[in-house]
Structures are given as structure tokens and as C-alpha cells.
Write a structure and sequence with these properties.
Elements: H1 5-14, H2 24-42, H3 73-78, E1 83-84, E2 87-88
Antiparallel strand pairs: 1-2
Helix pairs in contact: 1-2
EC number: 6.3.5.-
InterPro entries: Asp/Glu-ADT_sf_sub_c (IPR036113), GatC (IPR003837)
GO molecular function: asparaginyl-tRNA synthase (glutamine-hydrolyzing) activity; ATP binding; glutaminyl-tRNA synthase (glutamine-hydrolyzing) activity; transferase activity
């Protein structure tokens, strides 16, 4: 697949990037290089390879997904300038 200068102009417009007409050949060439690299990546056999979450092989820390009350309402409301009946109190802004 090859990107033309008109297609490069359209991509620049969609990306909201101002590109002068004399820079369009270079942009089209760069986009073609990116597409060529992506085609090379498609040739790699990744059958049986697990996806990575980072460059080091670490398992993500997991916790049990349970609903809790947070058990911190008193600590949080202690920092509020005005708290009433277990809630933050704010000034009325609508008449």
C-alpha cells in the first residue's frame, strides 16, 4: 500500500496538522515507511506468545474485586470544612 500526497494532505487535515504543500512529499514518504514497518510486523509468527504488559515479565498485582463501604467516611469527613449528617455540606448555589 502506498500513500499519495493527496492522502497525506487528507491525513494531516484529519489530524488537524498544518502541512505546507512542499512538505507533503516528505510526509507521504514517512507514512509509507510506517506502513511498510507495520507490514513487516505482520510477518512475525506470534502463535503461542502471550501479550506483554511491559518490558519486564511481571505479573500484575491483583486484588479481590469486592464492593466495600470504604470504611473511611469519618476520616474523610474530618478534613471537610463543613460536614453534616455524614455528608459534605456546601453552600447553596441555585435559588
Amino acid at each position: 500500500m502506498s500513500i499519495t500526497q493527496d492522502e497525506a494532505r487528507k491525513v494531516a487535515h484529519l489530524a488537524r496538522i498544518k502541512v505546507e504543500d512542499e512538505a507533503l512529499p516528505a510526509l507521504a514518504a514517512e507514512l509509507n515507511n510506517i506502513l511498510h514497518f507495520m507490514e513487516q510486523l505482520n510477518e512475525v509468527d506470534v502463535e503461542g506468545i502471550e501479550p506483554m504488559t511491559g518490558v519486564t515479565s511481571m505479573r500484575l498485582k491483583r486484588r479481590e474485586d469486592v464492593v466495600t463501604t470504604g470504611e473511611m467516611a469519618d476520616k474523610i469527613l474530618h478534613n471537610a470544612p463543613d460536614a453534616r449528617e455524614g455528608f459534605f455540606a456546601v453552600p447553596k448555589v441555585v435559588e
